[in-house]
Amino acid sequence: MKTFAAIDLGSYEQSLKIFTISKANGIREVDCVRNRLDLGSDTYVTGKVSHEKMDELCLVLREFVSIMDSYRVDEYKAYGTSAIREIKNTAMVLDQIMQRTGVKIEVLSNSEQRFLDYKSIASRGEYFEKIIEKGTVVLDIGGGSIQISLFDKDKLSSTQNLRLGVLRLQEKLHHLNVRPSRYEELLEELLAGQLGVFKKMYLKDRNIENIIVVDDYISDIIQKKLTDGQAGYADRASLLTYLGFLQEHTDEEIARRFDTPEEKVQLLRISSTIVKQVAALTDAKLIWAPGVSLCDGMAYEYAEKRKILTQVHDFEQDIITCAKGISKRYMGSKRRGEALEQIAMTIFDSLKKVHGLGNRERLLLRIATLLHDCGKYISMLNLGECSYAIIMSTEIIGLSHREREIVANVVKYNHLEFDYAIESSEGGSIDTEEYLTIAKLTAILQISNALDTSHKQKCKDMKAALKEDELIITVNTPEDMTLEKGLFDTRADFFKEVYSIRPVIRQKRVL
User: Fold this and answer.
1) Apex 86 CA angle, 434 and 102, nearest 5
2) Could you tell me if 18 and 68 are in contact, meaning their C-beta atoms sit under 8 angstroms apart?
3) Exposed, middle or buried: residue 56 (CB in 10 Å: 0-12, 13-18, 19+)?
4) Distance separating alpha carbons of residues 451 and 323, to the nearest angstrom
5) What is the DSSP letter of 273?
6) Which of 138, 209, 332, 436, by CA, is between 20 and 30 Å from 408?
7) Is 476 exposed, middle or buried (0-12, 13-18, 19+ CB in 10 A)?
8) Backbone phi, then psi, for 7, in 5-degree steps?
9) 59-73, 75-89, 178-192, 435-449: lowest mean pLDDT where?
10) 469: β partners
C-alpha cells in the first residue's frame, strides 16, 4: 500500500488530499484539507500575485507539509493551474515557494490540467463508462476558463477551451458598474456569444443526452441537495428548480439554504448560469456531478503509472481520436494518415535498440502522422509552416505544451529542410532532449512519407528489420515502386545523419 498526497493550487481554493492506494482496496481518500485564498483575482487582472497573498500561500503550504509528514506520505505531487500559469513572473514565484516551504510546484498546461480532471471522472469506473456510451458533454469549470469536451459512443471526439472561468467572469461583471440584479442577464448575454459559436462548429447534428460537471461550486450542491444520494445525478427539472431559487433569493438566504460561505455565492451563481446555458445549448436531460477534483485525477494517474491499478479507460485512444478529429476539421487525408501511421510505427518499433525513445514518443509520432498535412487547409505552398501554426494553435487534450511543440516541429520538418537551431515558441532554444526527440521522429516521418510519395498506399504490407548499419525495409507489393525508390535517397540522408543507419528498400513482388 502507498500513501500519496495531492496538492492543487487552484484559482480560488488550495486543496490537499491524502490517499491510500493498493491493488486490494483501490484508491481511498483518507483526508481532505481546503484553504480559501483567491489567487485568481490578482493574476487575471494584474498578472502577478500580491506579497500579502504570497505570504499567506506559503503559510498554507507549510501547514500542508506538516499534515503530509503526519501521514508519512510516500510521494506527493503539487500542481499549479491557471492562476499560477498566467503569472508574468512564474519562475520567480515557484522559486520563492520552493525556498520558503520546500514544496516543488509543477505548472500544468491547460490540456494537462483538463486531462487530469477527465481522469478523475474516469476513476469513478462503471459510472463514467456507462454515461459516455451516449452523447455526453464534459463541462469542466475552472477559475480562468471552461473546457467543453464531447464524447460520442464512449470516445472523446473533440474538446475546446473557452476563457469563461468563474473568477474571470466575476471580474468582468465588476467592471461593468451595474446593479448586481442585472448580473445574470448580462452574464447570459456574454456566454451566449461564445457558446453559440461552439454550437455551430461542434454540435451540428449531435444528440447530447448527458452533461458531466466538474467544478468547485455547483457540484457540491448537486451532490448534497438535488440527488437524494444517487451518486450525483440530477435531472433537468431539478436543476432548473434549483436555478430558480438562486434567482429569487438573497446571498444570505442562498448561503443558509445550501450551507455554503456567503462570499462563495456569486461564484456559485456564475457556475450555475454556465451549466444552465450549456444545458439549453445541448438540450441534455441528465446532469451528473461526480464530485471529483484535480487531486483525484492526480491520485489516479499516480496509481496508473505505477501499475497499482488496472486502467479502466483507454486514454491514449482518446488522444488519438482527438488528433483524428483535428485532421478531419482541416481536410486531412484519412487514408494517407492511416498509411503513414502504419509505416512509421513499423519503422519506430524496428529501431527500439537505437533510438532510446519510449511509448510516449511513439504516441507523439502517431499524432504527427495523423496531422502531417493539416496545413494544406491554409496553403499547399507553405505546408510546413501552416501545419506548425495549426498544431500550436489547437489544443490536444492530454498533451503538454512542449509535447504539442514536438509534434508541430516534426510535422513542419517533414516538409522543410531540418533546422539545426530550432527555437521554442516560448522563446529561446529547445532543450537537448526535446531537440533530439524532434530530430529522431522527423527522420522516421520523412522516410515514411517517402515510402508513400505517390499517395497510393503501396506499402500496406511491409516489414522493417535492423541489420548491422542498415534498416532493411521489405515491401510486398506487385505495384511499380520506381517513384518511391527514386526519391527515397534524399530523405534517407537525414535519417542516416540522425541514426548512423542507412535505410534500404527491398521489394518483393507478390502477384
Assistant:
1) 75
2) yes
3) middle
4) 22
5) H
6) 138
7) middle
8) -115, 125
9) 178-192
10) none
